[in-house]
Amino acid sequence: MIEFERYPHINDLFQHYINEFGDNEISAIMKSGVNNEEDATKLSVFIWKMVEKINDDEENQITVLGSADNTEMLPDLSYEIAKYMNEVGYYSIWDKVSESNIE
Q1: How far apart are CA 79 and CA 42, in angstroms?
Q2: Domain for residue 4, yes or no?
Q3: What is the pLDDT along the chain (103 residues), one digit of tens a residue?
Q4: Full-model pTM
Protein backbone atom coordinates (compact mmCIF):
# COMPACT_ATOMS: atom_id res chain seq x y z
CA MET A 1 0.00 0.00 0.00
CA ILE A 2 1.26 3.43 -0.88
CA GLU A 3 1.01 5.63 2.17
CA PHE A 4 2.73 8.95 2.50
CA GLU A 5 4.11 9.68 5.95
CA ARG A 6 5.89 13.03 5.98
CA TYR A 7 2.83 14.80 4.55
CA PRO A 8 -0.08 12.49 5.43
CA HIS A 9 -2.65 14.95 4.04
CA ILE A 10 -1.47 13.86 0.59
CA ASN A 11 -3.14 10.49 1.25
CA ASP A 12 -6.50 12.29 1.62
CA LEU A 13 -5.85 14.35 -1.48
CA PHE A 14 -5.14 11.22 -3.52
CA GLN A 15 -8.25 9.49 -2.23
CA HIS A 16 -10.42 12.48 -3.05
CA TYR A 17 -9.26 12.65 -6.66
CA ILE A 18 -9.28 8.88 -7.15
CA ASN A 19 -12.92 8.98 -6.10
CA GLU A 20 -13.68 12.07 -8.17
CA PHE A 21 -12.21 10.53 -11.32
CA GLY A 22 -13.57 7.08 -10.48
CA ASP A 23 -10.16 5.66 -11.30
CA ASN A 24 -10.16 2.02 -10.23
CA GLU A 25 -6.72 1.35 -11.77
CA ILE A 26 -5.09 4.04 -9.65
CA SER A 27 -7.00 2.84 -6.60
CA ALA A 28 -5.56 -0.65 -7.19
CA ILE A 29 -2.04 0.76 -7.63
CA MET A 30 -2.38 2.74 -4.40
CA LYS A 31 -3.40 -0.49 -2.63
CA SER A 32 -0.72 -2.74 -4.13
CA GLY A 33 2.07 -0.23 -4.76
CA VAL A 34 3.96 0.37 -7.99
CA ASN A 35 5.15 -3.03 -9.21
CA ASN A 36 6.31 -2.33 -12.75
CA GLU A 37 6.96 0.38 -15.33
CA GLU A 38 3.33 0.38 -16.47
CA ASP A 39 2.11 1.09 -12.92
CA ALA A 40 4.73 3.83 -12.56
CA THR A 41 3.61 5.46 -15.79
CA LYS A 42 -0.09 5.23 -14.93
CA LEU A 43 0.47 6.70 -11.48
CA SER A 44 2.66 9.50 -12.84
CA VAL A 45 0.11 10.43 -15.51
CA PHE A 46 -2.67 10.36 -12.89
CA ILE A 47 -0.73 12.69 -10.61
CA TRP A 48 -0.40 15.28 -13.38
CA LYS A 49 -4.11 14.90 -14.13
CA MET A 50 -4.72 15.45 -10.42
CA VAL A 51 -2.49 18.56 -10.38
CA GLU A 52 -4.46 20.01 -13.28
CA LYS A 53 -7.73 19.34 -11.43
CA ILE A 54 -6.39 20.90 -8.22
CA ASN A 55 -5.60 24.05 -10.19
CA ASP A 56 -9.02 23.99 -11.90
CA ASP A 57 -10.78 23.51 -8.57
CA GLU A 58 -8.90 26.48 -7.12
CA GLU A 59 -9.76 28.70 -10.10
CA ASN A 60 -13.42 27.68 -9.84
CA GLN A 61 -13.49 28.05 -6.03
CA ILE A 62 -14.50 24.41 -5.54
CA THR A 63 -14.00 23.30 -1.96
CA VAL A 64 -11.95 20.12 -1.61
CA LEU A 65 -11.01 18.74 1.79
CA GLY A 66 -12.36 21.90 3.42
CA SER A 67 -10.36 24.32 1.27
CA ALA A 68 -11.02 26.17 -1.97
CA ASP A 69 -7.27 26.37 -2.62
CA ASN A 70 -5.23 23.19 -2.30
CA THR A 71 -2.43 24.41 -4.53
CA GLU A 72 -0.33 24.88 -1.40
CA MET A 73 -0.21 21.07 -1.19
CA LEU A 74 1.57 20.73 -4.54
CA PRO A 75 5.12 20.96 -3.11
CA ASP A 76 4.18 18.28 -0.55
CA LEU A 77 2.74 16.11 -3.33
CA SER A 78 5.90 16.54 -5.37
CA TYR A 79 8.11 15.61 -2.42
CA GLU A 80 6.10 12.51 -1.54
CA ILE A 81 5.79 11.11 -5.05
CA ALA A 82 9.43 11.78 -5.96
CA LYS A 83 10.55 10.09 -2.73
CA TYR A 84 8.26 7.10 -3.32
CA MET A 85 9.21 6.64 -6.98
CA ASN A 86 12.89 6.81 -6.03
CA GLU A 87 12.39 4.19 -3.31
CA VAL A 88 10.68 1.75 -5.68
CA GLY A 89 13.16 2.35 -8.50
CA TYR A 90 10.92 4.22 -10.95
CA TYR A 91 12.02 7.81 -10.43
CA SER A 92 13.16 8.04 -14.06
CA ILE A 93 9.59 7.35 -15.22
CA TRP A 94 8.22 10.00 -12.87
CA ASP A 95 10.84 12.43 -14.16
CA LYS A 96 10.06 11.64 -17.82
CA VAL A 97 6.29 12.05 -17.37
CA SER A 98 6.85 15.25 -15.38
CA GLU A 99 9.06 16.75 -18.07
CA SER A 100 6.37 16.14 -20.67
CA ASN A 101 3.77 17.87 -18.46
CA ILE A 102 5.75 20.96 -17.52
CA GLU A 103 5.03 23.69 -19.97
Answers
A1: 18
A2: no
A3: 899 999 999 999 999 999 999 999 999 999 999 999 999 999 999 999 999 999 999 999 999 999 989 999 999 999 999 999 999 999 999 999 999 988 6
A4: 0.92
